[in-house]
Prior knowledge:
Elements: E1 3-8, H1 13-25, E2 29-32, H2 43-55, E3 61-66, H3 70-76, E4 84-86, H4 90-98, E5 104-108, H5 114-126, H6 133-146
Parallel strand pairs: 1-2, 1-3, 3-5, 4-5
Helix pairs in contact: 1-5, 2-3, 4-5
D-ribose binds at residues 9, 11, 43, 66-68, 70-71.
Amino acid sequence: MSAxxxxxxxxxxxxxxxxxxxxxxxxxxxxxxxxxxxDSVDYPDYAAAVAGTVTAGKAAxxxxxxxxxxxxxxxxxxxxxIRAAACTDAYTARLSREHNDANVLxxxxxxxxxxxxxxxxxxxxxxxxxxxxxxxxxxxxxELDRARGKPHxxxx
Length: 156
Ligand code: RB5
C-alpha cells in the first residue's frame, strides 16, 4: 500500500496523532512530516513539507491538519502539482477525489471531530478519480500551474 504524508500545526497536532494511528491500523505507511507537539508553529512550513513529499513521489497522497483546514489548503495549493481540498464532510471528500483528483486532504481540528475526520479520511482514501470530462479540467489545473508567474490569460 502506498505511503501517506501527514502533517499538522499545533492546532492540528492531536488530531494528526489520532489519524496516524488509524492509518497505520489500516495498513498504510505514514511519512510524518510533523509537527510533533502542541507548541505554536506556522502551518505553511508543514504544508510545504507534505506537499513536497507528495510531489517528490515519496508519498502517494498527503493529509494536513490545522485549526480550520483552510490555511493548510491555501499553502499546499501554492505548490505546483498539488490539488489540496479542505473537506468538512464525506461527500465533499469523495467528490474532491472523483472530480478534482485531489492529492492532498486538509482537515480542521477545531471544526471537525475525530470520528468525523476518520470518516472523511476513509472516504477520501477509498475514492478514485473518475477521469472522463474531469480529466480535461484537471489538465487545465496543471496548465495554471505551468502558467504561474506568467501574464494572466483572459477568460475563455
Ligand atoms: C492557528 O491558530 C490557526 O490559525 C491555524 O491552525 C489554521 O486554522 C489556519 O488556517
